[in-house]
Specification:
The chain is α+β, with helices and mostly antiparallel strands. The protein is built from three helices and eight strands, in the order αβββαβββαββ. The strands form two sheets. Strands 2, 3, 4, 5 and 6 form a five-stranded antiparallel sheet that branches. A three-stranded antiparallel sheet has the order 1-7-8.
Length: 171
């Protein structure tokens, strides 16, 4: 019986989330960035094979900022199969460096090179600029639209905290 009383408030809450979750805006000024990075990391644990949450230490990192799909100065790797340029590899941690971060009773895993990309979109509306996190699909849409400065209709995520979609608007 208690569950039936809660159901209307759950439905109301879901409708409120749905109504406030997405908004759209059309923009003519925009820039997409993709921050590519390489980071060396090592896992540490008392037993690397059975410990579910090993401690992770990060070592050297390098990064490169891609803007609108244009080759960044100093880029040496790329473009890859997603059109992204990558920095040079950071120096691999030495055995001594890995051992220095080991705690008593721990064992260290092998250094792993982790690739990461963070996408952002900056756009202007009136006299203000907004920078929000986004995804690969939006980045690629901007890369295609940017040379002709094609206006884009942006679909924003929950509470307008991200850009979920970008579609060209015909002039």
């Amino acid at each position: 019986m208690q569950k039936l009383k809660i159901l209307p408030s759950i439905i109301t809450a879901l409708m409120a989330i749905t109504l406030t979750s997405c908004s759209t805006t059309t923009v003519e000024q925009y820039e997409a960035t993709a921050l590519t990075s390489y980071t060396w990391q090592v896992k540490y644990a008392n037993d690397l094979t059975s410990q579910p949450q090993p401690r992770i230490e990060t070592f050297a990192t390098t990064s490169m900022l891609n803007r609108n799909g244009v080759k960044p100065s100093g880029a040496v790797i790329g473009p890859d199969d997603r059109g992204l340029w990558w920095p040079t590899l950071p120096p691999r941690p030495s055995v001594d460096e890995v051992e220095q971060r080991k705690r008593p009773q721990e064992e260290a895993g092998k250094p792993e090179l982790v690739k990461n990309v963070k996408y952002k979109l900056t756009y202007g509306v009136g006299n203000t600029q907004q920078t929000l996190p986004t995804n690969y699909d939006v980045y690629r849409q901007v890369v295609k639209a940017y040379p002709q400065r094609t206006p884009l209709e942006l679909t924003l995520g929950v509470n307008d905290n991200s850009v979920e979609k970008a579609e060209p608007v015909s002039k």
